[in-house]
Amino acid sequence: MQILLTQEAIAEKTRELARAISRDFLGKTPILVGILKGSIFFLADLMRHLDLDHEVDFISISSYASGITSSGTVRLLKDLDCDISGRDVLMVEDIIDSGLSLSYLRKNLLSRNPRSLSIVTLLDKRVPRERKVYVDYVGFEIDDLFVIGYGLDYAERFRELPHVAVMEEADQRAVDAARQ
Ligand code: IMP
Ligand code: MG
What we know:
By secondary structure, the protein is an alpha/beta fold. It has 4 helices and 9 strands, in the order E-H-E-H-E-E-E-H-E-E-E-E-H.
């Protein structure tokens, strides 16, 4: 696999995003909503750099069957534990590809009447999109490649890598062979 973003580059960008978020949410106590499972590393690192009181909750949806292409439909697998009405909510996402997951989640959370809803994503793929995706904070724009590591998986593997890497055919073949 080929490293796309080093641990150091991710750490620096996370600190930068945390500074901007801390400034924008000054005096507020936002709820960070981590979108499981890919965002866990980014969320944990972001939380540690926020100079801000905040809470955290999780939501889980599925749009990808288990491979690299979206199934096109979104299903809610785990809902939030808390009530977000009247609260400032910051959704924390790992990567935006088609934007389908985020559009679904944004609509779903907006229907619960939060005071505000913002979105931070570590990665944003440069892909043509049918609908516009509203994102407040973006870490890195990347090419349309399948990436793994720092929480991101291929078939539930590779999340533990400390960096973001481009998945190569050999990585994919090794996982696929082990699954047979
Ligand atoms: P979207 O709904 O097409 O925007 O897909 C977003 C979700 O798909 C992300 O939250 C990831 O969980 C997953 N995903 C999209 N691209 C990648 C990738 O390159 N590697 C790993 N997971 C990805
Ligand atoms: Mg995700």
